[in-house]
Specification:
binds fe (ii) ion; minor pseudopilin epsh fold
Amino acid sequence: MARVKTYKEQAFDQLRGLDGISDAQIAEHLTLYAGYVKQVNALNQQLAERLAQGKASGKDPEFAELTRRLGFEYNGMILHEYYFSNLRKAADPSPGRHSGLAQALSDAFGSVEAWQTDFQAMGEMRGIGWVILFQDPATDRLTNHWVTLHQDGVPAGFKPLLVMDVWEHAFMRDYKATEKMKYVDAFFRNIDWSMVERRLREEAAVRPAAA
Ligand SMILES: [Fe+2]
């Protein structure tokens, strides 16, 4: 049987002491993230076993269901790694005025403020999912996207620069269901802009590798 890659959850120690997102909220969220890592490993193992046993068949509903779940579980793991690693305590309030990021946001949206208005408005949308600032590696253009659940709406091959979780589990220990925008404001007070800048600069996608 082919060797199955096993992912390990990352620790994200820099997340203690955020402004407006409690340590208890983060601890609960990290437990949920660990569940995605576990599910990715279990799914890969189950599918590899089926393949080795000659049971890989698109006509088999169990095979099909396990396969369909790959997008959900993998993106659940990966997007959380982007999310946690673009937060830090004692963060700067905005990207540096003359940074490459500020320039790229201005080129795409008119100004950093206009980009932020758009990104936060997407955070107010009904439903569970993610708001993500992406860079198209083919054109370098930055765009904001809404991703439903974890897998619907991710532009193929685009590089995530800033990832915001807007599932209710991301904030409901600290805020009521009706207070999502208080969480969105808190998220913005804790953005690690140097990480976002690094993701913009580096060709490869930058996240702590769950390897
Ligand atoms: Fe989450």
